[in-house]
Design brief:
- This protein is an alpha/beta fold and 414 residues long.
- It contains 13 helices and 14 strands.
- Strands 5-4-6-7-1-8-14-13-9-10 form a ten-stranded mixed sheet, with helices on both faces. It has a two-stranded antiparallel ribbon with strand order 2-3. A two-stranded antiparallel sheet has the order 11-12.
- Helix 7 crosses helix 13.
- The longest helix has 17 residues.
């Protein structure tokens, strides 16, 4: 039996807000969350900017033990999951906890603690390494800690597919509910890798913008003068349920997930395939599963990283997947304001799609100053707009050629 899958709660921690409403309101206004790095002294680094979660004090959002024992990426996941669960009204009981799963992706886990304990090892020897180093840094601990905090005993694991992790995690949770393996799931992505090694490593790849003088203008997806992405951090989590389960408990339904597509470029470790062939297949698969035509798509939340190749090839992928409809579809990039949240990006952008559907509003892609002949779609430049959104696609494309697309729909009774 196949079940319809609906969304009943959303949660977010981002560079433009430590909850969904603050994040969404700032995105609508075109507020950039990118600034000079404050988590470490980056004054001698070629890249000195990032999208950090501002004014974040863990103990203001978690109890003292959690704030001390959880790494930043796990803290973000627990806070976003808590907000989403509260919004959903999903009460966890002894009767239902076995059928609620947790699928939270992350690309890198706690790179920061690996750096710190490497220094401790080199300076003081093996006995100076933290006894909690391993359980604090491993990627799956975001899912594990959310499950522990809320007592969720269904399947719990983490998808690791670089920048597509959050979208893949939601997609895999969607399939589990669609095919009846779970009643509900907490799913999304989380990341916190704004560390010396993280920034240096991505810069060594020549992947990052070096526009240190104007941080708020550094992330400029689809603009001709884009020069790389800006690292971001945060978490985006949604609560999904089978339609029957949501109706039975009287939940407020926010939107529906109707399709999920995943593909591999099988081309290069970091570069997307020319023409965006893999991304186009992921979009087409999501559209096919949803049982709709490309002409019904209203909006695409693009991967839109602000790198020369990604934006060009994703534009081509959208044209391939949507055909003539591509010229009529609004496309925007949340990363123009948040930076690239890596494994968390798909989770946050899923939240954005839900809010866009609910409010009939598309946030802008900021920093659209110089048109690029290779990027010629409607990117909602600089100013957001009201628009009816019935069908939205969310794209995530990860290093290694990992592509994932989710298709969201406005909820309508059968």
């Amino acid at each position: 039996m196949s079940h319809r899958v609906v969304i009943t709660g959303v949660g977010a921690v981002t560079p433009v807000g430590i909850n969904v409403e603050e994040t969404w309101n700032n995105l609508k206004k075109g507020v950039s969350g990118i600034d000079i790095i404050s988590q470490f002294d980056a004054s001698e680094f070629p890249v000195r900017i990032a999208g950090e979660v501002k004014n974040f004090v863990a103990k203001e959002h978690l109890d003292r033990k959690e704030a001390k024992r959880l790494e930043r990426f796990s803290q973000f996941a627990c806070i976003a999951a808590g907000e989403a669960l509260e919004m959903s009204g999903l009460e966890v009981t002894d009767e239902n906890r076995d059928n609620i799963g947790v699928f939270i992706g992350s690309g890198m886990g706690s790179l920061g603690l690996i750096e710190q304990d490497t220094i401790r090892l080199e300076k003081g020897g093996p006995l100076k390494v933290s006894p909690l180093m391993i359980p604090k840094v491993i990627v799956n601990m975001a899912s594990g800690n959310v499950a522990i905090k809320f007592g969720l005993k269904g399947p719990s694991h983490s998808v690791v597919s670089a920048c597509a992790s959050g979208t893949h995690a939601i997609g895999e949770a969607f399939r589990n509910i669609k095919h009846g393996y779970m009643d509900a799931c907490v799913c999304g992505g989380t990341e916190s890798t704004i560390t010396p090694l993280g920034v240096a490593g991505f810069h060594a790849l020549t992947a990052l913008s070096t526009n240190n003088d104007e941080p708020s203008k550094a992330s400029r997806p689809f603009d001709k003068n884009r020069d790389g992405f800006v690292m971001g951090e945060g978490a985006g989590v949604i609560i999904i349920e089978s339609l029957e389960h949501a109706i039975a408990r009287g939940a407020t339904i926010l939107a529906e997930i109707a399709g999920y597509g995943a593909s591999s470029d099988a081309y290069h470790m970091t570069s997307p395939a020319p023409g965006g062939e893999g991304g186009a297949r992921a979009m087409s698969l999501a559209i096919k599963e949803a049982g709709i035509s490309p002409a019904e798509v209203d909006y695409v939340n693009a991967h839109g990283t602000s790198t020369p190749y990604n934006d060009k090839f994703e534009t081509q992928a959208i044209k391939t997947a949507l055909g003539d409809q591509a010229a009529n579809v609004a496309v925007n990039s949340t990363k123009s304001m948040t930076g690239h949240l890596l494994g968390a990006a798909g989770g946050v952008e899923a939240v954005v799609c839900v809010k866009s559907i609910l409010e009939g509003y598309l946030h802008p892609t900021i920093n659209q100053e110089t048109p690029d002949e290779d990027c010629d779609l409607d990117y909602v430049p600089n100013v957001g707009r009201e628009a009816e959104v019935n069908v939205a696609l969310s794209n995530s494309l990860g290093f290694g050629g990992h592509n994932a697309t989710l298709l969201f729909k406005k909820y309508k009774e059968a």
